[in-house]
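Case study.
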Amino acid sequence: MLKVAVLISGRGSNLQALIDACARDDFPATIVRVISNKADAYGLVRAQNAGLDTAVVNHKDFPDRESFEDALHTELSNAGVEFICLAGFMRILNSDFVNRWRDRMLNIHPSLLPAFKGLHTHERVLEAGVGFTGCTVHFVRPEMDDGPIVTQAAVAVNPHEDASRLAERVLLLEHLIYPEALRLVAEGRVKVVGSKAEIKEATYSNTWLVNPEPMIE
Amino acid sequence: MLKVAVLISGRGSNLQALIDACARDDFPATIVRVISNKADAYGLVRAQNAGLDTAVVNHKDFPDRESFEDALHTELSNAGVEFICLAGFMRILNSDFVNRWRDRMLNIHPSLLPAFKGLHTHERVLEAGVGFTGCTVHFVRPEMDDGPIVTQAAVAVNPHEDASRLAERVLLLEHLIYPEALRLVAEGRVKVVGSKAEIKEATYSNTWLVNPEPMIE
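After joint prediction, the assembly is written out as follows.
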């Protein structure tokens, strides 16, 4: 069983998806610690409801980013954490921390990376008028929203919906692919080769989506 | 019937898709001229086989880009062309020419724009390890591979395939969406508003794709 920490800052809906997945008998990972940088993050309640150990490491309690990340690292080491899942963790991590956890830390981002890195992705997706968006689970690198891609999910954009409705639809896909990506990693089926994550025995769809859909006359 | 010119430089497989679409009784556009900047482009043969008027405007016959584009414009005007489809036309067009045909010129690009603008897209897609790629029909703007998006099609990338196989799969989608985009335009259902193309009465899929697909246990 891969021992996982989930790092959060807020409501923790992706955390919930990971909790639910880890509760399944055949899931190859277990959450040994949920850590928030905010004491009032609702995700902590979710973790406690699931009987998980939690910790708060508040960045405001530390003079600089280095000491904050040292405290984070100590907490992770004490809990015997082998792997990190960032799930709405809203602090930028220094390259020292990121490199200590290289290829042992995943993040989820609500766009089809490399498109639409950064914040307010859904607003920017709608503004750009693109036909598709989605979400990406990737290994973390020092550059923001960069790193080998493990899983992506794509959905057609309806330009008549607003950003919050689109966010809701993409979030459902996030809840689907984050546990799936963690499972692939925990089963030892993901190997980072250069800038890419190679997935052993993955299946790849040959279907496609068109947006807008051709009209049926 | 919208009077269309198709501009090519090579084999013209997207031209063929447009020829086939325009041959259908209910299609609202007709190709009045196929123009190539290369005399030996195989697309010219396809056009002649379909009984279409062709012209060669060779950029090498002109001292500069301006005079080449003036000749191109004259050819288009003489043929009564109302709308242009670029289909593998390998010359960069100056902003003067582009602005004369603003919102009356489409291009197709083999990626999910704004990702992977430029050449060698499939090689770069595979190198980046992304889960999805596709193709985009967009109005032409002076910036390369930029402009309001009319249609996109997405397909899951199989990282075990090579660029030429991926290109082949994307090309099938190109042949599907380019005629569809032209039809939408010719039916007056596409309106450019700011940086976006709004499509009247389009249908938008709620389905999604995941890559790699979850394994069925």
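Observations recorded in class. The mean pLDDT of chain B is 96. Chain B has two domains: 1-101, 107-217. We will return to this complex in the next lecture.
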